[in-house]
Amino acid sequence: MDSVGEEEDELKDALRTEDIADHYAVSWDLELGKGHSGSVRKCLNKETGEECALKCLPDDAASRLEIRLQMRVRDCPNVVRIYDVFKNRIQLPSETEPSERLLVVMEMMPGGELFERISKRRRFTEREAALVTKQV
User: Is residue 30 within a helix (H) or strand (E), and if so which, with residue range?
Assistant: First the structure.
């Protein structure tokens, strides 16, 4: 089997089709952030009580590629960890009808979005910029 087929199989093996609400309490009305591919909401693991981030993506080729790439680097300490991936039909608060979504449960990263933090600052010292760059 070629590597693309193997990667697609890896994603299929990771996809959970049961209702995300059985495992996570999702704050659908609380949007933590929004990217070019989807929005991020807060959720709580019902079994462990751990706070997580939930990325809501359309179920399309680009989203599947994004998830596969993130799964490929999951052992890197500088990449947010994926805990679960669900495929559910949901309706987000801003939508008029439900659609198929890939719901990616990830490690919660405190501190907000890096872009927002950088935008609020008028300037950085060379040392501050080096520290941020090193962390990224």
Answer: strand 24-34
